[in-house]
Design goal:
This protein has nine helices and eleven strands. It has helices spanning 2-23, 53-66, 79-86, 161-165, 172-201, 215-220, 229-233, 268-272, 290-295, and strands at 32-43, 70-76, 90-94, 103-108, 114-120, 131-138, 141-149, 205-210, 262-266, 280-281, 302-307.
Amino acid sequence: MFNSIYLSRLSVKKTIILLVLFTLPIPLQAETLKVASWNIAWLGSHQYNTRVESDYRELARYAKKLNADIIALQEVENAEYARQVFGDDYDYYFSTKDWVQRVGVAVRKSMGYSVKASEYKALDVGRVRYGMDIKLTKGSKEIRLLAVHLKSGCFERKLDSVSVDSMKNASKREKKEKKACVKLSKQLKPLEKWVDLRAAEGTPYIILGDFNRRFSQDIALNYSENSGLWQAIDDEHNEDLWTPTLTRNSDCWGGYYKDYIDHIVLGPKAKKRYIENSFNQLVFDQKYTRKLANSISDHCPISIELAL
């Protein structure tokens, strides 16, 4: 009799436990977000864009192979040109800078993110490109992106005012390089400001695009915060910034361009969501020729994956 009552009570307890378990919400698996950056050289209505229909098909083939959810685009004029490569599966957000080399961001529609896009005009320090500031939200998930294409031509020179002022300025080449370093040095503060604001908000954030800067050289030359672009954004307030391109050589076009100037820089909270070993550089199948670099691009797309 005792055993019968005990077993009956035990059965009731098991039933209650099972009912509770069945009514609990099932935890959702983390969603994977693939984030990429690609400078598709002179993709617009410029005389330098000599691509024909077969070239656009080849670009579209690589875009399909890239298969990214979010793509920071550089040197693409507008959504119409981007759509010829990536198709209708993306929403496109582009800067309005009056120049064919615009910065844009493609967001895959099926990801279901709410997108708030605005231009970061502070990077325009005189005839240079705006950034695109993108805020992505879905439910409780939120991530902030800044897509950039910084001034070209000052790849590893010191950027502090004393060093830039003392640069030679005699030949045409020297004048061009000094002008580039002057402008890039002026972009440090607005770039650092954006990073500081995001760090204060506590939101996961990423800065990505064509920085036109060899971060590996900034580090190898042990530049100060005022002299190196990497050191400027990775200052004492944000010392946990990280990018997988810091310690790698580029394999683009068979290593023709050895040092990375395209980067995907993650803030500390975004870094925690980085999927280990997910960094990838999509290397083109063909061997390098100047003609192919013009018809495809002199930049190979890079990507990472995040668990959100």
